Structures are given as C-alpha cells and as structure tokens.
Amino acid sequence: MAQIYRQASRTLKQAKISKPTAVVGLDHQARGIVRSQQGTRFIEGAVPGDVIRYQSDGKYTARLIEVITPSPHRMVPPCPIYDACGGCDMQHLRLDQQRQHKQQVVTELLQKFAGTKPELWLPPLVGAEFGYRRRTRLAVHWHAKRQTLKLGFRAKQSKNIIDIADCMVLEPALNRLLQPLRKLLPQLAFVRNLGHIELYLAATPVVLLRLSSWLLESMTTADQAQLKAFAETSAVAVWLQLDAGDPIAVAGNPQRPRYATTLPSSSSGCGVELQYMPGDFIQANTDMSERMVEQAIHWLDPQPTDTILELYAGTGNFSVPIAASGAQLIAVEGVSRMVQRLQANLDEALGTQHRGIAIQADLNQPTPALPSVTGPMTKALLDPARTGAQYAVALLVERLPQRIIYVSCAPDTLARDAGYLCQHGYFIKQAQVVDMFPQTHHIETIVWFERES
Q1: Active site residue 85
Q2: CA 81 remoteness from chain centre
C-alpha cells in the first residue's frame, strides 16, 4: 500500500550557534573534535587549535559556522573548489600535520581495538603533495533537454556533480585530458548512457567509459570516428566497460596497459612492468606504490628456502618481487580474471624458472579454502581492501607463518585484525604509514607481525 508523506505542520527548531569553543583534536575521518556540556561533536573543516563557532546538525555532528581564532596548523586550501568537492578533505591542514595525524590515528586504533602498539614506528613514507594520482573516477551527467554536460567529482555528502576544469591531485598527464573529454562527450550518441569514466596513467594514458552492454552494437560510425580522433589527438587508449566481463579496447593502443613494480635489489634490473586491465585495482600513487613494495619486501625478506603465502594478490604488485627472490610463492586472488593476469605477469616477468603459482579463492568466506595448498608456510603477505581480512587472518593463524606483512588501507579493520593476530601469538615488530593519499584522510599502513617464540 502506498504511503504519502506530508511536510510536518511545524518546523523543527534550528539549533543555536555555539559560543566560542576550542577544537581539541581530529577523529579518524579528519573531522575536528569539540567538547561541551551538550556533548562531543565532530566538525568537518575544523582544525585542532582553532577557536570556532558551530551549529549542531546531528547527535554527534555539527557544521562549522565561523573560525574566530585560526590554529597555527590551519592553511588556506589552494584548490578553488575545495569547499564543494567531495575528493580532498584535508587541504585546510598543513601537510606535516596531516602526516602526524595519520600515524596518530593508527596508533590510537591499535591501542583501542588490539591493545597493542608497534615495537618501532618508522617515519612515514612521503612524496609529492599534489599531482600524484594516476587513476581516478569521474562522474558524468548529460542533461538532454538543456544539452549540457557535467563532468567532475561528487560534491561532499551528495550525488551532485561538481564540474572540474582541472584537479590538483591528478597526475598532469591525466589532468590534461579533462578539457578534451569535456569537448568529446557531447558529440557521442551514447553520452546519455554513460555511467562514469575512469582514467589510468600507464605507459599510455587510458580512458575507460562505462556503459550498458546493449549499446555496443548500436555505437554509430560517427561515435567510432570521434573516439579514434580523440585517441590519436590526446595520445590515449580508449576502452569500453560493459555490464560484465573484461573491458574492450575501441581506440588507440589495443594492448593491455602496464604499471611498474619494484624487484628486489638482488635480482637483475631495478623493476618490471606488469599488465593490468582497465577496471583492475592498481595503487593510485605511482611513487608511493613502488616505495611501499620495496619496504614490504625488505621486511618480508623472502629467501629461496621460504614458502610464502600471499593473500589478495591482485595482478602481482607484490607477487612478482616475492617470486623474483627465488622463494616458493602461493599467490591467492579472489577474482578469477585477475588470477589469470597474475599468473601471466609472473611468467612473463620471471620466465619459466620461478616458483610462483596463482590460485583463485574467496577470502571473504568464513572458512576460506585454498585448493591444492599443503604444507607449512614460513611467511605471509596480505593487502586486503577496506573491509580488511577478518577471515583471512584466521586462515593465517591456522598455518602459523613466522612473519606476516600486512598492507592496510583502512586503520579500523587493520586494528581489528591485529587484535586477532596478537591474541594468537603475534606481536607488531615495526609499522610505517605510507602517505599514499595526501590532502585526504585516507591512510595506508604497512605492519610487520612476528610470531612469538
């Protein structure tokens, strides 16, 4: 039965604006924390050391009204659309304070949820503060009646699209594609059916257009000509992602794009390029990804006598460097198509003599099963998504590797999983924050777990 909702007959009383209040800290989402007799509030845009006025807009949240006395850690955001765009959320805080905050967040969550701390914190791995991002997703909306296009990022806490002319955190080669794309899209017959666009920077920049599968056969000759001209003029490869399956190359270089990873210093050469398909996960920051791999492999210290289990292996960012050491590697990935690319990357990069094998297994099941994996594992490395590795760490505890390197992009699930490992005989020997996403609250961390004797 349909229900019709009518506007309330009275307007809720708007919350009063607070008196001047000091901001005492940041939460793990980089929101300022204030405390008063009315309770604790979390406020976007507030910085520790600020004295502000705010207006409550929820049980635990509030809106920043005025900065009366700015913190010495506050700075003017350099991006002109920072207040509206939903991408960056820490440009108002000095970069050194951003990095200090990120390590503090991981420290506090490990203590709170795991009751532990690293024996040693290494200084954060840091790089460029802008122009670092080699992949991004752009929202698209074509207004057919007005014949207007919106291309950009979602607004903060909204589905609205903020038009962007350029983005300060994108790699320059991707930034240069924004205006040509803005010109191209209205000329395509299928523009109204575009879901979103993904940009990748490999040896050749890649533009991935996501749309419904039924449109492929109906793509006009004019569309194909426009895409070809755009690919040639902008020196890019254009791919289409349909409802299911791998994307299809439609203009420019049809070869699969590649990204770089670092090989151990003991192997020949200093690095190798690995194949991926547009839509596969690759780290967003080229420089930080390579340095993170180097650090993780240094801690893992793979030896020819080791049997190493790698979980959430992707297309081989860590797998190839591990196998290059001569160790026996079992690399586990959940997506079957990526397992094929992972094995191909191992074989292409290392020839036929390596001891690495890629297998498919769903690590998000309560009892993940690893087919054809027997015998003890001396070491392990895992790099899960934001949901962490709740079931995978239980699998590791069953196999009791001496050393585990955990690469995390979410400190809350890292802390949860660390608690489980520490309850089962592991301690944190070293940890390091990787500033993979400057100007945002997102935190990448590498943690070295060792089993107690």
Answers
A1: no
A2: 22
Summarised one tens digit per residue, pLDDT across range 226-249 is 999 999 999 999 999 987 778 999
Residue of 273, 260, 285 whose CA lies nearest to 434: 285
Tokens, residue 67: 């900065």
Query: To which residue do tokens 């050469």 refer?
Result: 269
Q: Which two tokens stand for residue 329?
A: 């590697």
From CA 80, how far away is CA 270, in angstroms rounded?
40
Average pLDDT, integer, range 415-433 = 98
CA 405 vs CA 216, 349, 413: distances in Å: 43, 23, 15
- Cβ neighbourhood burial of 402 (10 Å; 0-12, 13-18, 19+): middle
Q: How many other β-carbons are positioned within 10 Å of the β-carbon of residue 149?
A: 19
Amino acid (one-letter) located at 231: A
Residues 6+ apart with CB under 8 A from 101: 26, 30, 93
Q: What's the burial of 143, exposed, middle or buried (CB within 10 Å: 0-12/13-18/19+)?
A: exposed
**pLDDT for res 220:** 84
Q: From the candidates 79, 85, 167, 409, which is the catalytic residue?
A: 409
Local confidence band at 38 (pLDDT 50, 70, 90 cut-offs):
confident
First to last CA, the chain: 65
CA-closest candidate to residue 16, choices 76, 74, 73, 57: 57
Q: Any residues with CB less than 8 A from the CB of 2 and at least 6 apart, and which?
A: none
pLDDT over 80 (residue 14): no
Kindly report, residue by residue over 137-164, the tens digit of the pLDDT.
999 999 989 999 999 999 988 899 999 9
The structure's pTM equals 0.93
Of 317, 205, 313, the C-alpha closest to 261 is 317
68 Ramachandran zone, left/alpha/beta (phi>0; psi -120 to 50) = alpha
What is the structure's pLDDT at 213? 59
Q: Which residues contact 52 (CB under 8 A, 6 or more apart)?
A: 18, 20, 21, 23, 32, 34, 43, 46, 64, 65, 66, 67, 68
- Let me know: does 408 contact 118? Beta carbons within 8 Å: no
Q: Kindly list the strands in the beta sheet with 328-333, ordered across the sheet, starting from the edge strand earlier in the chain.
A: 120-121, 426-434, 444-451, 403-408, 379-382, 307-311, 328-333, 356-360
**3-state SS track over 130-181:** CCCECEEEEEEEEECCCCEEEEEEEECCCCCEEECCCCCCECHHHHCCHHHH
